[in-house]
Amino acid sequence: MTKELLAPRTLEGIKRLAKNISKETGQQHSRALDSAALCSGYQNFAHARRMLSRAHEPNVEPQTFIFITGYWYDHDTKEGGRETLKLRVSKPLEEIITTAQLRVAAYLSRFRRVSADHLVYRFQYISQQSARHFVCQAARALQFMDATGLKPSTSRKLNPNLHMGERLPGIDHSTVWRDPETGQIIVVDEPYGGGATWQQERDTWSRRHGWEIIKPSWSGIYFPDGGTEFYLLADVSKGNPLQRIATTLDKAPTPVVASRWNGESAPWDKLFSTPGEIASAKTNHERKKSSQKVTKKISAKTIGYHSMFGNVRRKPDTRMPVEAHSQIGKLLMPVLGAAWKRQGVRNRLETVRSELDDWVQKEYLRTELSDEVFHKLYYGDVQHRFRSNEKLDIAELTHKLSAAERILKKHYPDCEPLRAILRKLEKARESLEKWKV
To answer: Do 18 and 141 fall into the same domain?
Structure first.
């Protein structure tokens, strides 16, 4: 049965969906009610009835939703798509985590905020299963922060006993969080079913160092459906908030997991807009009217398209020969390999080749450009990022970037999308020239 994001929002709607589920699957009515409630983001039917009843009470905040999206492409099967999860939370995304915190947050740092209610993974997963896994992992991190009010710690420093010297026995997949009101550090430890094995040693360690370790019933962030356990740790000399946090988590919604996926699965190029994106578009419409003439002038040599990540972008209204795309790819990939550790070069060239990879897909049909040729254009040298830094010839690397610029100028008309790529190449070249190797 296809699961749509437009799940029932009322108790009556959940009951109607439950009847359909019973007819289609033969489930008992009580189980079908729980399944229908799960589709709407509740733990079960009892949870849905409780929350929807409270929604009519005075002074009760309305429910808020966050959408989390990951795109995937399987190079073996040549299939791809989009996985989007609709997550019910108690407050808006910006109140749970700021943009600055998003960059350092465990399980969320590779997502970007595309609107007030939408996070999208910056890259591309290798399979539908991995996309669902990491989207759910990001959702659990948001559930954890929403319930506890904790924020990701921006400090790289942690009590040294956890990472050096006498390490906490069995610690694994640890993440660091901060109480925004007290500044106290809370550590989350999520080992693979090893907590009980190490229990005596961990108790001895905690007594020796003055830390407390407790295990809430909430199943965790990292991989609860894969066997990890969930522990909270804190230095009790600076206060002891763990029981309060554990009690809060025990009342929180059940962590979402990929094994019970109830998001939307769709083709990667199927346009999807969240309520926040639609509202933002309406607000921006009036602002764009004043620059309409300029936009038309800029757009005269460009066309719009949907990128791999669903964003509406523009590219030159022409197509560059496949041979020219191949030449540029062969120029960019050696520079990426040689200067992989130079962030100012790597980040800009990754953006450039991702953009050009999108462009060539819009310029040629699959009947004109085979998958084998396409995949070799900009991502053929999969080992380039693992090369060691031998003696670098900076002049040769900058020459390659200049050659790529000349090819682009030769085959594309002057327009803002092209100028944006040329600016990135220029900045990458400047970064190379300043690199002291």
So the answer is: no
Residues 6+ apart with CB under 8 A from 209: 159, 161, 166, 235
| Same-domain check for residues 134 and 114 | yes
Pull the structure tokens for residue 386: 């693992």
> Do 99 and 205 belong together in one domain?
no
> What range defines the domain where residue 85 resides?
64-150+257-266
Domain for residue 246, yes or no? no
HSE-CB for 305 with a 13 A CA cutoff:
20
What tens-digit pLDDT sequence spans the chain (437 residues)?
Answer: 334 444 676 777 888 888 888 887 888 887 888 888 877 777 678 777 777 765 554 444 456 899 999 999 888 888 889 999 999 999 999 999 998 899 889 999 999 998 889 999 988 888 999 999 999 999 999 999 999 999 998 665 555 456 545 788 888 899 999 998 888 899 999 998 765 678 888 889 888 888 999 999 999 999 999 999 999 999 888 888 899 999 999 999 999 999 999 999 998 777 788 888 877 765 555 444 444 443 344 456 888 766 655 556 789 999 999 999 999 999 999 998 888 888 899 889 989 998 998 899 888 887 788 877 887 898 775 444 445 445 678 899 999 999 999 999 999 999 999 999 999 999 999 999 988 76
- At 310, list the tokens: 């669903």
Distance, in Å, from the CA atom of 108 to the CA atom of 102, rounded to the nearest integer, reads 6
Strand partners, 218: none
- The count of other CB atoms within 10 Å of the CB of residue 233 is 23
Residue 331 located in a structural domain: yes
- Phi, psi dihedrals of residue 167, rounded to the nearest 5°: -70, 145
Closest of 201, 200, 173, 168 to residue 189, by C-alpha? 173
Query: Count of alpha carbons within 13 Å of 35, Cβ hemisphere only?
Result: 19
**Alpha carbon distance 41, 20 (integer Å):** 18
12 contact partners, CB below 8 Å, separation of at least 6: none
Q: Which residues contact 393 (CB under 8 A, 6 or more apart)?
A: none
For residue 363, tell me if it sits in a domain: yes
Within the chain, what is the greatest distance between any pair of CA atoms?
Answer: 72
